[in-house]
Amino acid sequence: MIPNESLNVRHGFLRTGEVHRVMSFLDGDLADLVEFLFATAWRFSEAAERLKWQNVEDDRLWIATSKSGHPRTIPIAGDLIPIMQRRLRRKNGDYVFHHEGKKIVSFQWHWKRANARAGYEDKHWVVHDLRRSAIVRMIEAGIDQKTVMQWSGHRTDSVFRRYMIVTMDRMVQAAERVSDLERQRAAHPRHLDGQGERDYRWQRR
Questions:
Q1: What is the pTM of this model?
Q2: Of 39, 46, 87, residue with least CA distance to 66
């Protein structure tokens, strides 16, 4: 039986190159928002509707409440530094992310159009896939789960696991790591049933 938490869970995610290509078909304000979501694993509503300049300090930014009902604080570091520098130059009103000075209430139309122009219409990506993609990217970078959850704002393991996509690349890496371990163990010749040395490498026949 499929666990309940696995039902109705999307598995779409974007790689860095795909995100940048979609961004190239958005104007500067919306492209910054997309890059921010991909860098932080924040929800759209948290970045577009709750993050104001009053929540930005010299080395961090925060929101009083998130979907989980708890405050969130993250450092302004890494990819966030150039993003926030651009936002400061584009400052226009209370909100960090705006569209030509107006609060971003809906983004779906712009997102779908940019995906179509980028040639990804058949992917059916939604904005929330950026959150999932950011989490996958952090995990693949070797960041521990507790730290990733601090960025994403997840409070429980059960909800967080819904975002942990096992990609084909990671499966290949797992197979290669197992093979490497076996090769190390086979560095010394093995003898079975007196038949002499045996090569355990898989060969196409």
A1: 0.74
A2: 46
